[in-house]
Structures are given as C-alpha cells and as structure tokens.
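Class, look over these structure tokens:
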Amino acid sequence: MRMIRLLIAFACIALGAVVGALNRQLTTIDFGALQVSTTLGVALLVALLLGVLLGGMAIAASVVLPLRRRLSLIERQRIPPTTAGT
C-alpha cells in the first residue's frame, strides 16, 4: 500500500512539473490591491492546490466532523462509567 501511495505521489509531482514547464507564458493576477506576476503554469498549480484544500476542508466540516461527533455520542452512551474500588 505504501508503494502505491509513493508511486501516485511521484506521478502527481511529475504531472505538476510537466504542467509548469509547458505553460511558461507570463500572466498577471489582480487581487484589487495586489498584483502578482507569475507564469501560467504556477498560477494553474496554485489554483488547483487551493481548490483541493478548500474542497477537503468543506468535506471535513460538512461530513467528517458531524460523524465524529455522532460516533463519540454513541460510544459515551454504550460504555457505562466505572467506579473505583468496586
């Protein structure tokens, strides 16, 4: 399983390097008060990374956290408290 993860990681790094190398055109991103000049490949990779991170946080907030809360509530109800010395 570790080997598969390592191969997938290397494939993603290689794909990112290819995208960055093939898109060398200069572009300017305007944020209103701030302008950033970069290459198109870097801008694409940063946008993809931000999308993945924001999507992961949205999934964690909407699915994972409520399920963890529900699981901890069920576990607390199922296990009776123990008393010391009996």
The longest strand covers residues 26-30. The first helix runs from residue 2 to 22. The two ends are 46 Å apart (CA to CA). The CA atoms of residues 29 and 36 lie 5 Å apart.
